[in-house]
Amino acid sequence: MVLLASGVASIGLGGVADASTAPTSPGPAFLSSLGKPEQVASTVPANGDVNPYGIVVVPSTVGTLVKGDTLVSNFNDKANVQGTGTTIVQVSPTGTHSTFATIGPLPASSACPGGIGLTTALSVLPGGWVVVGSLPAGAGGTLPLANPAGCLIVLNSNGGVTETWSSKDINGPWDMTEEVAGSGVDLFVSNVLSRPTGVTKTPQSGDASTIVRITVSLVAGQPPKMTGSRVIGSGFISKANKAAFVQGATGVVLGANGTLYVAETVRNEISEIPNALTRTTAAADGTSTLSSGGWLNGPLGLTLAPNGDVIVMNANDGNAVEISPQGHQVAKKTLVPKGSGDLFAATIESGGHGLLFVNDGTNALDIATMR
Q1: CA 121 distance to own-chain centroid
Q2: Alpha helices of the chain — where are they, by DSSP H?
Q3: Which domains does the chain carry?
Q4: Helical (H) or strand (E) element with 47
Q5: Are the C-beta atoms of 234 and 287 separated by less than 8 Å?
Q6: C-alpha distances in Å from residue 40, one per residue of 65, 90, 267, 349, 352
């Protein structure tokens, strides 16, 4: 396996069906309406961090956050060592670029097991609180031995660290999505380092990772508080990989029907966790599958199109794939030609007329807008 310039590797899957065999369903596809992607701005901050992973559009103006801007988290430092990125950049729709946050060493009261390495897990909560995941590298860029490893870091609207959240259920937080409900928020986090309690060895191929629902309470004028956690998905395969750092459950997105969709990179499928907002038991990976094979090729980031379809970013070919809630692969679009290793996270721009995505190959934020 060859390490790409961005630090993301091509993921060998084998047995993927030819794209021409992918099922289709009637109705307009969001990806089919998009034109040729264009670069919005570089995502490299002053300290030289690279490998943009997480992405979220700012929903409202507060502090230094501006409605419609995009936040992007960086996973690598300027030496391209994975799991050592410490910055979140803010990009306006016109391409103005600034550093929203640089996270330095944390005080003992806000420790993050293993250290800092910002991941794809990135959300903006009501009130302008930014939550970002950390999956820190161990010595020499290896996976951390700490168990559990990593945390969720809470920043205020000016980019300052307010607190960290860690627990036995947060172990290598890799991606995240949110659902606001009343006076609180549910965060759905995909883990990639779940290991048995007390085990501190490097994660092994075939480790069974989890999807966890984090309950957060919100009180005006006060920082958000994590009030509980529950594992709602289990048995998601993770595997250590020197080139890709780690492979496992990545993108998560909540459908209108309450089903949480999970990108299972290793198995090359999109799994389903029904009743994600209310369930009290863990659904086993593979129990329910939205789609597998076909145009999928190492699925990573997920987002929900305005029409309710699931948009999947492929790790291995630079393509995005659109899947209906019924499981039909309805469209495929090339975002980065021959872009193995270039795609990771994506989201819909604030007006609903374009797809924003990180380009790890050029360390930039790109957009494909409706024609």
Answers
A1: 5
A2: none
A3: 19-369 (2.120.10.30)
A4: none
A5: no
A6: 18, 11, 33, 12, 16
Q: How many CB atoms lie within 10 A of CB 320?
A: 26
Which two structure tokens, joined as six digits, stand for 143? 């996976």
Spatial distance between the Cα atoms of 338 and 13, rounded to a whole number of angstroms: 17
Burial of residue 5 (number of CB atoms within 10 Å: 0-12, 13-18, 19+): middle
Q: Rounded CA gap, 53 and 265, in Å? A: 15
Q: How many CA atoms lie within 13 A of 40 on its CB side?
A: 27
3-state secondary structure of 256: coil
| E strands in 58-172 | 70-76, 87-91, 97-102, 118-125, 129-134, 151-155, 161-165
Query: Dmax of the chain from CA atoms?
Result: 55
Q: How many angstroms separate the CA atoms of 134 and 363, rounded?
A: 19
Residue showing tokens 């596809």: 29
Cα–Cα dist 323/269, whole Å = 11
State the pTM of this model.
Answer: 0.92
Rounded distance, CA 159 to CA 171, Å?
24
- Record the tokens describing residue 234, joined without a space: 């289990």
In sequence order, what are the residues at sequence separation of 6 or more whose Cβ sits closer than 8 angstroms to the Cβ of residue 221? none
Residue 45: cis peptide before it, omega within 30 degrees of 0 = no
3-state class (DSSP) for residue 140: helix
| Peptide bond before residue 223 is cis, with ω within 30 degrees of 0 | no
Take residue 355 and report the two structure tokens written for it: 């797809």
Cross-strand bridge partners of residue 173: 191
State the 10-residue block means of pLDDT for the chain, 371 residues long.
Answer: 34 35 58 97 98 97 98 96 96 97 91 93 97 91 87 98 95 96 94 79 74 96 96 92 84 96 96 97 95 97 97 97 97 97 96 96 97 87
